[in-house]
Each structure stands twice: as structure tokens, then as C-alpha cells.
């Protein structure tokens, strides 16, 4: 029987698929750390109060990258290059979502609208990350090899999502509401398509590594497309709603140290 638990167990049990999984995850987290670091450095003067929280966000993402690399090292594995078609972060940028890296490499202050775009993009992608980590915690939170790392990353992703909700609501009250809703919708509709494409690409690579039967790969691909169809019809709306989180000021302190893996 196919299930999220059985699929992830297959991936974790095989060195080659595990190495690809951790390499993809580490690359995306490290890229997110760089992006947040640059945004924190370029925040406009009118929003400088956000800089420490953006810095904390970036530090958390860097930490997650180190955690995934440590999981590889613990098993005696080296990272592998990330196939372009599985690079979620870069594909989102290529589709015009978030702040372009060319902009972030320049030493020019960002605008308030840029920060609205950054937080709206983050609200959508952090929802995806929080949901994925919640699923992994449910099935593998007590796993002897990856459980502790998954639980810590999941906690951080929940903090990131809470921070995005709180800051976007604050900016909405300050008059940015129409822009926020427009950008959230654009980000959500693009993200669900990119997530579908990346999921199909990752499953194709895993299928080749693990020598899945053609029928199994076809069923998984159909499931991914079915999820996309649901998200395209109604599911995307969940990714654009804003509500005051229970965790207030979730990124108001220093980043926690990475656990010993």
C-alpha cells in the first residue's frame, strides 16, 4: 500500500535516495538563508524594525541547511548536485515569485512594496514548508535517525509562518492590504504549479534510484496531479488567508542552536 510513511521510509533506507533528498533540502534551506540575510541588510529605513526578525528567519534557514548536511555526514555521505528541475527556490524566482536575486545582490535599499512581496511570498512558501514538516513529524517524529531534526525544523517553520501572518496583518492595517492580497494570490497560484512540477521531478528521480515499477510511478504522478487540481480549484485559498497567530512575536529572539545530529 502506498502511503507518505512508506514512501519516505523507502527514501530514508536507501543511501542514494536519502542523499538526494537531503541535498535538495539543504540547498533550498541554504538559499533561503542567503535571501533573508540580503533582505535584512537592504530593508528600507521606514521598516528597519523588521530587520532583526528577517535576520532570525535567515539564521534559521541556514541552520536547517546545516542540519540536513549533518544528517548526510552522519551516514558518511556527501551532498550531490541538485537537479535543476527539483530546485524549488530557483524555479519560483524564474516564475517571478519573490524578490529577484539580481535585486538582492545590489547594494540598493529595498522599497516598502519589496517587503510586502517578500512577506507575501514567505507566507505562501512557509505554509507549504510547515505542512510538509507536520506530515513528517506525524510519521517520523520518533525516528532514531531523523526524528529530532524533523521536530526542530517543524517548530521553526511554524514560527516562520506565524511571523508572516503577524507582520502582514500589521502591514495591512497600515494601508498595504490591497497590495498584500494581490501578491498573495499571485504567489499562491504560481507556487502550487511549481510545487507540482518539482514534486513530479523529485518522484521521477526517486523512482529511477529505487527502481520503482512503472505502475507505482504512474500512481504517484497521478496523486501529485490530483493534489494540484484540488489546490488550483480551492486549496490555494488557504494559502492566502491571514489570521493573528497564537505564537506572537515568533521571531523576536535569537535563533536556537542546531541540535547534535
Our estimate of the beta-strand percent is under 5%
The overall pLDDT average reads: 95
> Helix and strand string, N-terminal first?
HHHHHHHH
User: Which residue ranges are poorly predicted, with pLDDT under 50 across at least 5 consecutive positions?
Assistant: none
Question: What is the CA–CA distance across the termini?
Answer: 31 Å
Class per helix and strand makeup? mainly alpha
* Main beta sheet strand tally, sense and closure: none
The outline comes out as globular
Instruction: Specify Rg, calculated over alpha carbons.
Output: 18 Å
Helix content: over 70%
Tell me the total number of β-strands: 0
Total number of helical segments? 8
Explain how this protein is built.
It is built from 8 helices and no strands. Helix 1 packs across helix 2 (15-42), helix 2 (15-42) packs antiparallel against helix 3 (51-74) and helix 7 (147-210) packs across helix 8. With 261 residues, it is an all-alpha fold. The protein has helices spanning 4-13, 15-42, 51-74, 88-94, 101-105, 112-140, 147-210, 214-233. The mean pLDDT is 95. Helix content is 72%, strand content 0%.
Using brief descriptors, characterize the structure shown:
0% strand; single chain; 261 residues; mainly alpha
Amino acid at each position: 500500500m502506498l502511503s507518505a510513511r512508506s514512501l519516505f521510509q523507502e527514501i530514508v533506507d536507501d543511501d542514494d535516495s536519502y542523499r538526494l533528498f537531503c541535498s535538495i533540502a539543504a540547498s533550498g534551506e541554504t538559499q533561503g538563508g542567503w535571501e533573508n540575510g540580503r533582505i535584512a541588510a537592504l530593508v528600507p529605513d521606514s521598516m528597519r524594525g523588521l530587520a532583526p526578525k528577517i535576520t532570525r528567519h535567515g539564521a534559521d534557514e541556514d541552520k536547517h541547511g546545516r542540519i540536513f548536511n549533518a544528517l548526510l555526514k552522519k551516514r558518511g555521505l556527501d551532498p550531490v548536485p541538485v537537479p535543476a528541475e527539483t530546485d524549488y527556490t530557483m524555479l519560483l524566482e524564474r516564475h517571478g515569485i519573490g524578490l529577484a536575486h539580481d535585486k538582492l545582490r545590489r547594494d540598493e535599499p529595498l522599497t516598502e512594496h519589496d517587503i510586502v512581496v517578500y512577506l507575501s511570498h514567505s507566507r505562501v512558501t512557509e505554509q507549504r514548508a510547515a505542512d510538509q514538516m507536520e506530515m513528517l513529524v506525524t510519521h517520523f517524529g520518533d525516528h532514531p535517525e531523523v526524528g529530532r531534526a524533523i521536530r526542530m525544523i517543524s517548530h521553526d517553520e511554524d514560527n516562520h509562518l506565524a511571523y508572516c501572518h503577524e507582520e502582514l496583518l500589521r502591514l495591512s492595517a497600515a494601508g498595504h492590504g490591497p497590495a498584500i492580497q494581490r501578491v498573495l494570490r499571485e504567489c499562491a497560484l504560481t507556487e502550487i504549479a511549481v510545487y507540482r512540477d518539482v514534486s513530479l521531478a523529485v518522484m521521477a528521480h526517486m523512482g529511477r534510484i529505487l527502481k520503482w515499477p512503472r505502475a507505482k510511478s504512474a500512481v504517484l504522478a497521478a496523486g501529485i496531479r490530483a493534489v494540484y487540481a484540488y489546490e488550483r480549484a480551492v486549496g490555494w485559498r488557504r494559502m492566502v488567508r491571514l489570521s493573528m497567530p497564537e505564537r506572537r512575536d515568533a521571531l523576536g529572539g535569537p535563533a536556537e542552536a542546531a541540535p547534535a545530529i
